Amino acid sequence: MKPINPHVLTPTMVRIKEAADMTGHERFFRLRLPRPLGHRPGQFVMVSVPGIGEAPISICCGPGDHDRLELLVRSAGSLTMVLQRLETGDQMGIRGPFGTGFDLADFEGRDVLFVAGGLGLAPLRSLIEPLILDRQRFGRITIISGCRTPAEELFGREMRTWARAPGIRVIRLVNDTAHLPWDGEVGLVTAPIAGLDMDPAATLAVLCGPPVMYKFVIMELAARGLAHDRIFIDLERRMRCGIGKCGHCQINHLTCCQDGPVFRLSSVESLPEALA
Amino acid sequence: MAVYLVERSVFLEWIGMLARHERVYFPQPVSESSFRFNRVGSRSLLALEDFDDSSRVKPFRASACVPPPVRSLAPDNELLFTFRRDKAGDCLLAPVLDNSRRILAGVRPCDLKAIALMDRFQRAGIPDPYYLARRDHTLIIGHDCLQPCDEYCFCEAAGSLAWREGADIFLTPQPQARLLVEPLTDQGAVLLADAGFPICEDVKGCRARAAARRATPFGRRFAAPLAQVMQVVAGSWDSAVWEQHADRCFSCGTCNLVCPTCSCFDVRDDFNVEDPGSGRRTRRRDACMLEDFAEVAGGHNFRKSTAARQRHRVMRKFVYLPDRFGGTAFCVGCGRCRRQCTVAIDIFDIATDLLAGAGEGT
Q: How far A195 CA sits from the closest chain B CA (Å)?
């Protein structure tokens, strides 16, 4: 019988080491953990402000034996609105990590194409970081990241730094420049896929974005001959527990919090609720 | 293990005695038509139905117990942890688990099965510590059914009527207002050892008498075996039947609230009004029939239509959870969702219509 952890639904309070607004409605946090989280890229934590509530937030830093935890929080409800006001030295509650995440071994020697829509870049960053850190272990990296306007771009400075590493191409897009200065491209994340220099037999694609994005990106990737077991998708669902019990994140017979949130497209494409 | 044959009144007196120093829950009337698993106190009126007189309305209907007994293991507004801020402003959290011993007595086979299925669900993967703290300190006294509760029961068709797993003691009605009292676990035997009940000399005969007395058919029956029903439901994603049973649904979630194998929850934080530096997190029942159950932060709803939510509820009972937890249907046939539904939506009818639509059992 599995050991029962009586604390699994009780957060650990963690100190904020650094907090900074990234956009008008997204705030970046670096926390110092009492012990390394030991997470895999693509996993998430449940973030709490006791008295206010709790929500799932993707881990946006790479894995490793470090006591650092980075989160990007978008203001979307009462809890995330309160989180926007937290400063260095304040505490937030953390439970997890939860979910399966990515296995770095799957990416060894492969070219990797990332397609991120809006906040989708945050969880993908947890995989981009280790791939960049250990360049020779992995193939070429292409990052397509899109957002609505230049003011909403996430990790812009970091993406420019990534682009300087060998064997990495970064394509930054906005739907609309909104009359702001912009040094990237204008269009949807689907647009650059047709023109990419890509070997479908050696490439893995990793997608994260709003539900509407997946269908169109998958169509473009299929047109390039990418098999569905080479496409990873990171799905978002409402979650209340992270341990497969609250029922909110169910995708047909799967639970997003335990079986995902990262899935191979081939393993969920037959599930009508996965991309609907 | 010794088996006993006891006068019903003596047994009920014993339950009353137990309740003086144990937390005992037993179905008790709360109105003319409804019963609840309430804690037994000195004034509780305890009753069980008669073996001989089947014309008499049961003193209570097992399935009429709303909420079902499994809710004693996962109560609504369950406290998860308390928190308080110290002088430095740091937040201190303490989980609150309920490890106190309790006895659930008079649990019918459908509810025994529901509890056994929830045990599997709650122990799987990352176990739920709150449910299991209660469950591992709970003794269950089951009670056989010789008559279906009412016209909505379909426990035999759902494979629940013969369920015994999870019971520590099992009661079977006998002629002359007596009960066959069988311990099924060591804990059950220990509890009975001091009761002073007379030993039963003919256990097989007693069991046979009850079996012969049992109504056949027992409640409603599907037009096909349960395994086939489950298979048909699994293949019915695009069926028009979902829409037919959804157009009068209010999406009120009552069916979820009364179902003994529904366990979805939402969490809620509250500050203490008199001391806002402290507070609590509780969880309360949630319902997949409610409109916003599968809505995410951006506003996208993964089950927008009532029919999609109805389908999810039924699929969860007959397909999703069985797939993960041993192949047994999670609908136990208690009939509660139909009985409590204000617009008479019936999971039995939905399954029957799907079956007919698939050309089975006609």
A: 31
The answer as to whether A93 is a domain residue is yes
Domain count, chain A: 2
Q: Check whether residue A108 and residue A225 sit in a common domain.
A: yes
Report residues of chain B scoring pLDDT below 70. Answer: 53-63, 360-362
Render pLDDT for A178-233 as a digit per residue (tens, 0 to 9). Answer: 999 999 999 999 999 999 999 999 999 999 998 889 999 999 999 999 999 999 99
Q: Does residue A241 belong to any structural domain of this protein? A: no
- Which chain B residues touch A272 with a CB distance below 8 Å? 237
pLDDT at A241: 96
Q: Are residues A230 and A113 in the same domain?
A: yes
For B108-156, the DSSP string reads: -HHHHHHHHHHHHHHHSSS--HHHHHHHTTEEEEEE--SS-SSTT--TT
| Strand A44-49, strand A203-208: pairing | unpaired
Residues in chain B within 8 Å Cβ distance of A248: 264, 266, 286, 293-294
Question: Which residue, B169, B161, B178, B256, is CA-closest to B214?
Answer: B161
Q: How far apart are CA B360 and CA B354, in angstroms?
A: 9
Q: Taking CA atoms, what residue in A is nearest to B293?
A: A248
Verify whether the Cβ–Cβ distance A91 to B128 is below 8 Å: no
Q: Do A6 and B264 touch (CB under 8 A)?
A: no
Residues 6+ apart with CB under 8 A from B84: B91, B92, B275, B277, B278, B279
User: Where are chain B's structural domains?
Assistant: 4-357
Interface touch A250/B319, C-beta < 8 Å: no
A97 versus A4: the higher-pLDDT residue is A97
Tell me which of A47, A78, A98 is where a domain ends: A98
User: Nearest Cβ partner of B81 from A10, A52, A242?
Assistant: A10
Provide the pLDDT confidence category of residue A3 given band limits of 50, 70 and 90.
confident
For residue A207, the distance in angstroms to the closest alpha carbon of chain B comes to 17
Test A210 with B300 for CB contact under 8 angstroms: yes
The predicted structure's pLDDT at residue B136:
97
Work out the average pLDDT over A55-65. Answer: 94
The pLDDT score that the predictor gives to residue B56 is 52
Within this chain, do residues A83 and A115 fall inside the same structural domain, yes or no? no
**3-class secondary structure, A116:** strand
* A109 and A127, same domain (yes or no): yes
Residue A264 counted as domain residue: no
- What pLDDT shows up at residue B362? 47
Residue A211 domain-assigned (yes or no): yes
Q: What percent of chain B has pLDDT over 70?
A: 96
CA distance, residue A52 to nearest chain B CA (Å): 6
Confidence bin at A82 (pLDDT 50/70/90): very high
Considering chain A, what is the average pLDDT of its residues?
95
In this prediction, what percent of chain A has a pLDDT beyond 90? 92
In angstroms, what CA-CA distances link B238 with A42, B234, B252?
33, 10, 24
B348's tokens: 């039995």
Dig out the tokens for A205 from the structure.
């694609």
Q: Which range marks the domain in which residue A174 is found? A: 104-234
